[in-house]
Amino acid sequence: MHLRAPAILIAARPHGETAVIARLLTEESGVVAAYVAGGRGRQLRPVVIPGNMVEAEIRAKSDSQLPFARLELAQSRGPWLTEPLPAAAIAWTCALTASALPERNPYPSLYSALSALLDAVCNAPSARGWAPALAAYEVLLLRELGYGGARPEIEGLEQALEIMRGTEPLIARYLLADTRNDVLAARALLMQRLERMA
């Protein structure tokens, strides 16, 4: 395996003293887990943040081996992690995507939607600008994995919250059956912050 592509870093777990196992969402190869040497070191720590866009070079000698990855930062989400609401949205969408998607199955529509959603979270003046996109992303994820229906028209924060309340049982039951408590805690925090705005 040899892949060089833009990717969204959706999860990073420490491995050993300084390395990281990163989960990367690419447009053509889907989710790919890879070993990043020095991922917790001073140079790569700002790169290995969930939500960041990276240029990834991923290599493996065989399909059964965990690939090695070299990452270059393309776009940082770091500045928004100090803001409670954008940080909660980035944490939730990345955790949901990392937990729900199977590895090495391409989902180009989810890659595009997640990229656009993260851009909206970071560039909209308030959550009213990106909450409908977040609700639409959850519906799209359920639909792409075979658990949802038609895409609803979402207008405004209140309607987005209503749709998100409706999708929560489906997400908990179908997408997060094994990791429900850990991942849904990120969603609970996000919903709490969004409902304060409504």
From TrEMBL:
Domain of life: Bacteria
InterPro entries: DNA_rep/recomb_RecO_N, NA-bd_OB-fold, RecO, RecO_C
Domain DNA replication/recombination mediator RecO N-terminal: 1-68
Alphabetical list of Pfam families matching this protein: RecO_C, RecO_N
Keyword check for Chloroplast: no
Keywords carried by this UniProt record: DNA damage, DNA recombination, DNA repair
Family: Belongs to the RecO family.
UniProt cross-references to PANTHER family, sorted A to Z: DNA REPAIR PROTEIN RECO
Name of the protein this chain belongs to: DNA repair protein RecO
